[in-house]
């Protein structure tokens, strides 16, 4: 079982057509045909959208994405048009709204990894490969890879698990030319992100991008970029291969959900319980810390 514990009812705004409720974002189309992406404070873990919001998360992720789009502007064009809240929308959309070019999205989760962990580590332990790419012997959880790799995944529906696929499979699905462009652009954006993060004492272990084509056939980066929801960021001074690294992402939530304190069995049919206030506060603080460390600005 998985999905939304409580499926939210989207806000209706005159002049906007609601298109989709994603795990984290609400998507609308405005009268100009642009995409209005509104990030919520929702969070997901173990393929569930949890019943508890993390206050300010939508604004933090939106502001961090916008900052990154600027950092990346000379590497790849992005989908942002403005951050204007549409007329008639709730005031609390401010800071978490992006008006974007509506792209024809390529249905591939474009993952780049510079370090071994997570699903990459599981495949490596079994086959000495990640997404079919051969890697040297002797790597452990948290090891830096000889060079960053492109490890695409298929995009799963809400409640389903993304699945790692080989580059050849991506080429079969989207064509050789698009696959090559996705790989090249993913690695270029990862490289810039890694360098910027490294200057701030943060390791960008891996990250996921989504790309689409605009009306001119140009590949554009969409969605959110280089946030703790789409990336693994590790404090560089605590990096020690051989075990799980402390991270700026939702690990606090996953740890609590799998602890005895939650009373929840992730393999049961039961939805996860609400998060206690202290877990919410710690997660919120972690998101703010990531924002402040990366951007060098104080939150709000
Ligand atoms: N510029 C764009 N044009 C069209 N679609 C976009 C653009 N940028 C992002 N998207 C899509 O908007 C959605 C963002 O919502 P969110 O991240 O909450 O969804 P998700 O849970 O990851 O995926 P799903 O949409 O399948 O539920 C994604 O489906 C993403 O592919
Ligand atoms: Mg998403």
TrEMBL record:
Cellular component aspect of the GO annotation: cytoplasm
Domain annotation SAICAR synthetase/ADE2 N-terminal: ranges: 19-270
Protein name: Phosphoribosylaminoimidazole-succinocarboxamide synthase
The UniProt record lists the keyword Nucleotide-binding: yes
One Pfam family, short name: SAICAR_synt
Pathway where this protein functions: Purine metabolism; IMP biosynthesis via de novo pathway; 5-amino-1-(5-phospho-D-ribosyl)imidazole-4-carboxamide from 5-amino-1-(5-phospho-D-ribosyl)imidazole-4-carboxylate: step 1/2
GO molecular function: ATP binding; phosphoribosylaminoimidazolesuccinocarboxamide synthase activity
EC number: 6.3.2.6
Family statement: Belongs to the SAICAR synthetase family.
Catalyzed reactions per annotation: 5-amino-1-(5-phospho-D-ribosyl)imidazole-4-carboxylate + L-aspartate + ATP = (2S)-2-[5-amino-1-(5-phospho-beta-D-ribosyl)imidazole-4-carboxamido]succinate + ADP + phosphate + 2 H(+)
